[in-house]
Amino acid sequence: MKIIVTENQFKLLQENDKDFNKTKSLVISMFNQGHSVNDIKKYTGLSNEVVVLCLEDEKTIKKGDCEDIYETLYNILWETDFIEKDVTYNDGSTLSIDYDRFEGSITLSYTSDNGIELGGYATFLWNGECNLPIDVNSVLKNGTIDWYEASNYNVWRADETFKEIETYRQLIDYFNQTYFKVMKEPLDEMVEEYLYHFYSSYEDTEFDED
Predict the structure, then answer these.
(1) What does the alpha-carbon distance between residue 208 and residue 210 come to, in Å, rounded to a whole number?
(2) 5 pLDDT exceeds 50?
(3) Helices (H), the chain
(4) Cβ atoms of 66 and 128 closer than 8 Å
(5) What's the rounded Cα separation, in Å, for the pair 37 and 87?
């Protein structure tokens, strides 16, 4: 692909671009001419965050294409500061996530309001498919791992509104808000299911939850 501006020209542009409009126009122009985000970063020296900011309201994502949304989220947006990785809910429970590039999946660590810790996976659009699988494979209580029927804690949740996503801004907002909101209910259900089985096995024994 042809490079649009020389390094000296771009430096001059930056020095005179007090309101960011010229840089934004340049990045949008390069993208519309077929340059990838990585190309734009290489040719301009801009950071990933700046390129995303310039393109955030452009229709860069194929509407309804889960594979395109997947590629955009994990290959363009994930390493920016725009994607939340930790959240604290109103009841004090917490959820932390991380993306394992080797496995292509999001690992989760959820601590409920009563101290039960769940570990597992919850990869939004896993494998480019239009689903959110939630698979918990470990349960901790008081720091002790309990694998009791952990393999049964597997649900699929999908929120269809993500199929309307066309821009970086929409995808960032969806992930930071809806993804974490959708995760809360099934994770709490798994905690309740675990406690039900745990306590039922001690029905003839006094047990102090604390």
Answers:
(1) 5
(2) no
(3) 7-15, 21-32, 37-44, 48-55, 66-72, 168-173, 180-200
(4) yes
(5) 28
What residues pair up with 110 in beta bridges, in sequence order?
A: 95, 118
Count of residues for the chain? 210
Which pair of structure tokens corresponds to residue 88? 């604290």
Q: What is the C-alpha separation between 179 and 73, in angstroms, rounded?
A: 12
What is the C-alpha separation between 191 and 106, in angstroms, rounded? 20
Please give the Cα distance from 31 to 167 (Å, whole number): 13
Q: Find tokens 């604390």 and name the residue.
A: 210
The C-alpha atoms of residue 95 and residue 74 are separated, in whole angstroms, by: 19
Residues 150 and 169: their CA atoms lie apart, in Å, by 36
* Mean local confidence (pLDDT), 62-86: 94
How far apart CA 118 and CA 82 sit, in angstroms, is 25
Q: Any idea what the Cα angle at residue 73 is, between residues 71 and 79, rounded to 5°?
A: 115
What predicted TM-score, i.e. pTM, was given to this entire model?
Answer: 0.80
CA pair distance 178, 162, nearest whole angstrom: 9
Please state, in angstroms and as integers, the Cα–Cα distance from residue 51 to each residue in 54, 58, 81, 97, following that order: 5, 12, 13, 24
